[in-house]
Automatic annotation (TrEMBL):
GO terms for molecular function: hydrolase activity. It comes from Cohnella endophytica. Gene3D superfamilies: 6.20.240.60, Cell wall hydrolase SleB, domain 1 (1.10.10.2520), Copper amine oxidase-like, N-terminal domain (3.30.457.10). Residues 230-327 form the Cell wall hydrolase SleB domain. Residues 1-29 form the signal peptide. Keywords: Hydrolase, Signal. This is Cell wall hydrolase. Residues 44-149 form the Copper amine oxidase-like N-terminal domain.
Length: 329
């Protein structure tokens, strides 16, 4: 395996250009903090990786998804319509990342990263530590010399003399976490010859709050009927207004109750919502909002200033204007 990784390392820089041509060409509009180019040395298993692609936001380092993945022999597929990257690692883990979406799907489960991936200069960037850990590697940083060291970690192989107890001790993790990481139950046991993943990505400690398919579809339907003729950004904004209300003590605490209560959403009361069939953009916007992507901060109202006027609406603090609507609190 090590020979394969080293070979891919040598090919990574050249192939990176081919892999990233399909990626979006502009930075994520929701990225509020400045993106800085960092002159840092990347070492993979002790060997220098030549790159000028290290970026920093608020003290956190990022690398392009394609480049980091190729360093560890992983495959990357890009979905242009949804702005999503799917990574399949050499050990069979599956990682799904969305542009500006802090929730990552890791082997089908949802976890929250400390910072969201973003796109810039034709590439999607991922927080370096989160990405490396999910690719089964360790990360260390030498601040004085500005060196990032990445260490690929092989699977641990159980033997008659080196079983689960010894593997757990060597990896420095709990038995329960090790078994969960490998999709095993305590009663299954670990037989000689079993190959176990031993790197525990830090995201595994931050499971995302679940949502139901019914919540997703209702959010997409109301988004479609309210601003379905406008951009994805407008639809994401409306979806977030609803979710912000769910979190705000002044409003009901479920998506359904928010949509069907009060006068903010007339389509919920005049039959239009029942007839709404969400299109791809609305489904994506609703899913991204449920996964934490937010382009309107804590706005809990939206209105079209050409149609909706009055003392109440003029008293609100407008956070942003997207399409034909203002988003306010």
């Amino acid at each position: 395996m090590k020979k394969r990784i080293n070979k891919l390392t040598l090919l990574a820089i050249g192939a990176l250009l081919l892999l990233t041509t399909a990626l979006p060409l502009t930075a994520n509009a929701a990225q509020e903090k400045p993106i800085a180019k960092v002159q840092a040395t990347i070492k993979l298993d002790g060997k220098d990786i030549k790159t000028d692609s290290v970026r920093e936001i608020a003290g956190r380092m990022y690398l392009p998804v394609a480049q980091l993945s190729m360093m560890f022999g992983a495959q990357v597929n890009w979905n242009q319509d949804n702005e999503e990257a799917t990574i399949t690692t050499v050990y069979g883990d599956r990682i799904l990342l969305g542009n500006g979406v802090p929730v990552v799907y890791f082997n089908g489960a949802r976890y929250i990263m400390d910072a969201a991936p973003f796109t810039s200069d034709g590439r999607m960037y991922i927080p370096l530590r989160d990405g490396a850990e999910m690719l089964h590697a360790k990360v260390s940083w030498n601040d004085e010399e500005q060196i990032v060291s990445l260490e690929s970690v092989p699977l641990s192989v159980a033997t008659e003399q080196f079983g689960l107890t010894e593997i757990v001790k060597q990896a420095g993790v709990s038995q329960a976490n090790l078994l969960k990481r490998n999709g095993l139950n305590p009663e299954d046991g670990v037989e000689a010859g079993a190959k176990l993943r031993v790197v525990m990505p830090s995201i595994l400690s931050h499971e995302a709050k679940p949502f139901t398919e019914a919540e997703w579809l209702l959010l997409a339907k109301i988004t479609q009927v309210e601003v379905g003729d406008e951009s994805y950004e407008s639809q994401l904004a409306v979806a977030n207004v609803i979710l912000n209300r769910v979190k705000d003590s002044r409003f009901p605490d479920t998506v359904r109750d928010v949509v069907y209560s009060g006068k903010q959403f007339p389509p919920a009361h005049n039959g239009l919502l029942d007839k709404s069939v969400p299109k791809a953009n609305a489904l994506r916007a609703a899913k991204d909002a449920l996964n934490g992507k937010n382009n309107v901060g804590d706005a809990v109202y939206f209105f079209n200033p050409r149609v909706t006027k009055g003392k109440f609406w003029s008293s609100l603090t407008v956070i942003d204007t997207i399409g034909s609507h203002r988003y306010a609190k």
